[in-house]
Design goal:
single chain; 112 residues; mainly alpha; 6 helices
Length: 112
């Protein structure tokens, strides 16, 4: 298996092993991923399952065959609520910082 999906697969496996579907109800992890029991999984496991499916789908996507899948940061998904500040390029704060100086409109045009 290519290395692009190994991290998220391992995170999904550990999430399934620690879920109540496997520990308490004694179901197989494969059975927990199917529709009747899928709703009983924690939200984190459901998100990892969707992410793993997207990763596998991206491996056969002809648009991504040269670039490959984007690397998955599983630790960012697991620790999403830890308050870490993400780097967002669009739709929020700029990733690098303010590059344009604010003006009031009555300054000289020569600069600082």
């Amino acid at each position: 298996m290519p290395s692009s999906c190994k991290d998220i697969r391992a995170a999904l496996a550990s999430c399934l092993q620690n879920s109540s579907c496997v520990i308490i109800d004694r179901n197989n992890p494969a059975d927990c991923l199917r529709p009747p029991l899928l709703d009983t999984l924690p939200t984190r496991c459901q998100q990892l399952k969707k992410g793993y499916g997207d990763c596998k789908r991206g491996m056969v996507d002809m648009r991504k065959r040269f670039r490959g899948n984007q690397p998955v940061a599983v630790s960012m998904e697991i620790e999403a609520g830890s308050g870490g500040e993400g780097r967002q390029l669009y739709g929020g704060k700029p990733a690098v910082g303010p590059s344009v100086r604010e003006t009031r409109g009555d300054e000289d045009e020569e600069g600082p």
